[in-house]
Design a protein that fits this description.
By secondary structure, the protein is mainly alpha-helical. It contains 4 helices and no strands. The model has no long low-confidence stretch (mean pLDDT 85).
Length: 81
């Protein structure tokens, strides 16, 4: 769809939305989402650091890992799944 056509369609659609209060609220939340500045993550940097360290240990084979089958067997034995 060409830009001019899209613009006309959106103007027409906005006219319909403006007449309906419930759609206005939805439209407002969409605009808020579009205009919202990215917030800083609620996960602290120290948590990302821990994940990075554990990943490095995993990749360097420094840490013992289990296959899914082994983990599943341990869970079954411990919890009876």
């Amino acid at each position: 769809m060409e830009t001019k056509e899209l613009r006309r369609k959106l103007i027409k659609d906005f006219g319909k939305f403006i007449e309906d209060d419930s759609k206005l609220e939805i439209l407002e939340s969409i605009f808020d989402a579009i205009n919202h500045d990215e917030k800083k993550s609620i996960v602290s940097d120290s948590h990302y650091d821990i994940v990075a360290e554990e990943r490095e240990k995993y990749l360097s084979n420094e840490k013992e890992v289990s296959s899914w089958e082994e983990a599943e067997q341990r869970l079954n034995a411990k919890y009876g799944f």
